[in-house]
Amino acid sequence: MPNLAQRRSNTLAIVSTAFVMLWVIIASGPFLWTLWGSFKVQGDFFSKADWTNALYGVRTMFETGGFFTTNGYYGAWIEQGFGESVINTTIVVVSTVIISLTLGTLGGYALARSGFKYSFWILMLALVFRAMPHITLVSGYLLPFFEWNIWGYLPTSIVVLVAINQPFTLWMLHSFFLNIPKDMDESAMVDGCTRFQAFRHVIIPVMWPGVVTTGLFSFLLAYNDFAVTASLLSQENQTMIPKIASFLGTTQVEGNVMFAVAAVVSAMIPLFILIMFFQRQIVSGLTAGAVKG
Amino acid sequence: MPHRTFFWFIIPSLLAMVLFIALPVISVIVQSLHVEHEKVLISSENCGPFGCKKITTIDVAATDQLRSDRPLGQFSGFDNYTNRSHLAFDEVSLAWEISENMTDFIKKILNLPFYKALFFTLTYTFVVTPFVIILGLAIALGVNSLPKFAKGPTIFVSLLPMIVTPLIGSLILFWMVDGDGIIGGSIQTLFNDPNLSLKASPALTWMMLIVYGIWHSAPFSFIVFYAGLQTVPADTLEAATIDGANRWQRIRYVVVPYMKPLVVFITLMQLMDNFRVFEPIVSFASEASATSLSWIIYKDLTSDTQLFGSAAATSMLTIVGVAILLLPVLIKTWRDFNRTAR
Q: What residues in B contact A109, CB-CB < 8 Å?
């Protein structure tokens, strides 16, 4: 009898491991494939004859003489000026993260420490704002921004991204501050600190894990955004993601699709590094609020 | 915390939300009640030897002047909501009259741009969400029984589809299912049909978009369930084993009940996020067979003549849609809040 049970659980273990392996292939395969293919010519990556050409690089050998080619990267970065949009993305993302964390920390702390009814309503309002598709807000911005002549500039989209980010930042930091015991800042206030001094000297030193986690998600929101940056930035101020989208419209010429492939791989790399270093924070951030409450 | 202190702490964040979320919503409402100015026409009579002819020409200067004086356009009431590109009351009632049966009627309705987008958005939302929950739970159970050293790398890989920019993730899949790509090419060989293209058939395009949606969101539910599994008490599981429950029964009667609050949380997040589906439509260039509400707003805003009124009306209808989706959750939260307050 134990043998039978054991055998059954072995089968189950094999099935479950096989399933996870399949998932790992489905999750990572497309990225690896594109990474590999970005060093080939279009004739291989989009092979009309046989998809295995992309593996062996038949056309790449024929056209460039090497097994790998960096023509796609050269085209994207040098010819199409992808570098400029990388700089723009850096400016937008860094500013968005810093500003939204500053505002969010103050607000989240206040919401966590106040027992008034209206703090509940502010949180509910934030939840409703969080649910609204970003593009519906964009249709509200465009006309006023045109009229005030502030359309197309980086600061405008930074401010908009900060605002769109706020509801989420507030929720996350609020639930994080709830986990810092009230006694800490209250005893500081008993000792004569004002509320702001207590925040400055007692809370700020212990809040960094929560701020880092929230910052990661603000980063992702700003970095991954397409709706806001694509419609609020002018051609010369474009960030990476709208730039990649604009490659698609103009690159019907043979070989130029590979510019887009190279740009896509370039934009993926920072995200890979981010997950590698901050995997634990991302996991804990995703589950904050779900598992605890 | 006194009201005054609370106020000073919250004001920067609240100001940002009011200025850039609440006011834009009001701006959307106002815009949705206006349409663009019509062109200013001049009619003049031109008399020649063969009688007089009336000529109408467009006064370009006056049109531009009018447009820059009153950029909002002219007031139109609810026309934007009822015209052909939105709720299309006239077209719907006409279709109802001339259709012979229900299928015919539905087919006619789905040719109208708003209903076409709404139908896809709802299908996407309600197909992707349950699949994401089931697949996420299955992966979580699988990863949970892996040996310890394998867990970290598996989680790393699993996070990729979710963390990578939606536009990029969907482009990568699109390139693979392209007729000349690896998956598209293999399918052509498999069915021995060189003209088979995932892009040409609406049904296959829908399937592709939904598969992308599941691939993109499954990691989220996996992570939430995986974290939840760590909190299932080992005692209860052991007790169930001693009582003779097999593995499946332990999952069904011990683990799943523990996961219930998580299912509610994931459903809420997924409904919100899937309802705004947008980037895959751009990447897959699927507008011929599948559009979403967000996509038609984007198209109105970025076309050569920007249709602010039309985009605003669709935005309002989308916001109403989100509100209807979230209503059950909000009512529940409101009840819980009242219960704890009492």
A: 9
pLDDT digit string, tens, across residues A214-253:
888 899 889 998 888 888 888 888 888 888 888 776 545 5
Q: A98 with A231, same domain?
A: yes
Residues A201 and A280 grouped into a single domain: yes
The token duo for A288 is 């904050």
Domain of A234? 80-287
Amino acid B283: pLDDT: 84
Secondary structure string (H, E, C) spanning B86-140: CCCHHHHHHHHHHCCCHHHHHHHHCCCHHHHHHHHHHHHHHHHHHHHHHHHHHHH
Nearest chain A alpha carbon to B14: A107
Least confident of A31-35, A283-287, B9-13: A283-287
Residues A190 and A214 in one domain: yes
Whether A17 and A154 map to the same domain: the answer is: no
> What token pair was written down for B132?
């994401």
How far is Cα A18 from Cα A15, in angstroms, rounded to an integer? 5
Query: Which of A74, A109, A131 finishes a domain?
Result: A74
| Residue A201 lies inside a defined structural domain of this protein | yes
Model confidence over B162-206: pLDDT tens digits? 888 999 898 888 888 876 777 777 777 777 776 777 777 788 888
In chain B the domains, ranked by start, together with CATH numbers, are 112-341 (1.10.3720.10)
CB contact under 8 A, A128 and B326: yes
pLDDT band at residue A94 under the 50/70/90 scheme: very high
Find the residue in B nearest to A115 (Cα).
Answer: B1
pLDDT, tens only, A244-257: 888 776 545 555 77
Counting the structural domains of chain A, the total is 2
**Size of the A and B interface in Cβ pairs below 8 Å:** 280
The overall average pLDDT reported for chain B is 82
Q: Do A265 and A126 lie in a common domain?
A: yes
Taking residue B232's Cβ as centre, other Cβ atoms within 10 Å add up to 16
Residue at which a domain ends, from A74, A95, A130: A74
B34-35/B51-58 β-pairing: unpaired
List Cβ neighbours of A243 (8 Å cut-off, separation of 6 or more): A82, A85, A263
Classify residue A273: in a domain, yes or no: yes
Instruction: Examine the domain organization and report whether A65 and A88 are in the same domain.
Output: no
Q: Domain check: are A137 and A268 in the same one?
A: yes
pTM above 0.90, yes or no: no
* Residue of B4, B7, B8, B9 to mutate, testing the A interface (most A Cβ within 10 Å of its Cβ): B9
